[in-house]
């Protein structure tokens, strides 16, 4: 068992709020102690903290009492219900949840190959494997599920787009279209399934019991086209760097929609919404260049 204090990876530290009184910073300050106590409580041996790691959790590679490898994860505040979603999937298309601590939020997960994601594959093969993985996650959430819904998040999304429209006259028509679509789409959806919520190629890792398994969900309930829209946007910079990029973007929408029997128009509309919303957030976070690229991508659709 480890006795020396651990240092959270810099990527995690820099991605959290800088306000020392925020829940995220208080959680970060307590993290070394939480990790040490969890190792003792679950009789785990620490190998190392996964680095560079993610922006919303700390993952430590550990060994269980019998020597079986596992991953100990501490999600940052603001990412609820990951354990509930993993419990529903029970290893089908996603990493298997072995144990959870409701007090600390710790999750003990099966060990995957963290350095090998779908991003290591050629683009066409990666998209094919990603589509096959995400379709396994689209299941009924049950009548009393705890997950947020796309419809329930509409007001906040519309507020964000309206504020951006007022501040960005040049992009106002595109922002207005995204706002109108974000209001209308949840009201016309005919399916309400459990979604990964943050699906992309980098969230699908190589495993032992299955070739590819999804990790890091931000689960919510809605229609499949919402999850698939994130896959359309995945590695969009690579697509934009090629020739005929606008046509290639529209082909990607059509290909993914047809491969999973999703309506092309709804996938196009959700992709535009997600691209514009992400552009607004990236710009607000200081990455104006990426925000402008996302708006350009959305305009091609």
UniProtKB/TrEMBL annotation:
An annotated Gene Ontology molecular function: kinase activity
Region (Disordered): 1-22
One Gene Ontology biological process: secondary metabolic process
Start-end of Polar residues biased regions: 12-21
Keywords, alphabetical: Kinase, Transferase
Coiled coil spans: none
Pfam families for the chain: APH_6_hur
InterPro entries the UniProt entry points to: Kinase-like_dom_sf, NH2Glyco/OHUrea_AB-resist_kin
Record's keyword annotation contains Transferase: yes
UniProt protein name: Kinase
Lineage: Bacteria, Bacillati, Actinomycetota, Actinomycetes, Kitasatosporales
């Amino acid at each position: 068992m480890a006795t020396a204090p651990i240092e959270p990876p810099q990527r995690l530290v820099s991605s959290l709020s800088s306000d020392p009184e925020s829940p995220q910073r208080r959680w970060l300050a307590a993290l070394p102690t939480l990790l040490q106590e969890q190792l003792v409580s679950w009789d785990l041996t620490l190998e190392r903290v996964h680095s560079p790691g993610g922006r919303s959790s700390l993952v430590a590679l550990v060994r269980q009492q019998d020597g079986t490898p596992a991953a100990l994860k501490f999600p940052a505040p603001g990412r609820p219900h990951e354990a509930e979603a993993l419990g529903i999937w029970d290893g089908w298309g996603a990493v298997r949840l072995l144990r959870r601590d409701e007090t600390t939020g710790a999750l003990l997960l099966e060990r995957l190959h963290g350095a090998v994601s779908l991003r290591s594959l050629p683009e066409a093969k990666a998209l094919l494997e990603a589509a096959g993985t995400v379709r396994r996650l689209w299941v009924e959430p049950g009548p009393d599920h705890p997950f947020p819904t796309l419809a329930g998040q509409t007001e906040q999304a519309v507020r964000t787009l309206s504020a951006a429209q007022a501040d960005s006259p040049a992009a106002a028509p595109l922002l207005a279209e995204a706002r109108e679509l974000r209001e209308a789409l949840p009201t016309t959806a005919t399916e309400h399934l459990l979604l990964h919520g943050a699906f992309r190629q980098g969230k699908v890792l190589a495993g032992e019991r299955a070739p590819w398994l999804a990790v890091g969900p931000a689960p919510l309930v809605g229609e499949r086209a919402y999850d698939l829209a994130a896959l359309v946007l995945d590695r969009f910079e690579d697509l934009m760097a090629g020739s005929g990029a606008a046509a290639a973007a529209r082909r990607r929408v059509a290909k993914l929609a047809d491969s999973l029997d999703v309506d092309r128009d709804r996938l196009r509309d959700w992709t535009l919404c997600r691209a514009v919303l992400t552009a607004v957030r990236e710009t607000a976070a200081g990455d104006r260049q990426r925000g402008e690229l996302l708006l350009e991508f959305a305009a091609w659709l």
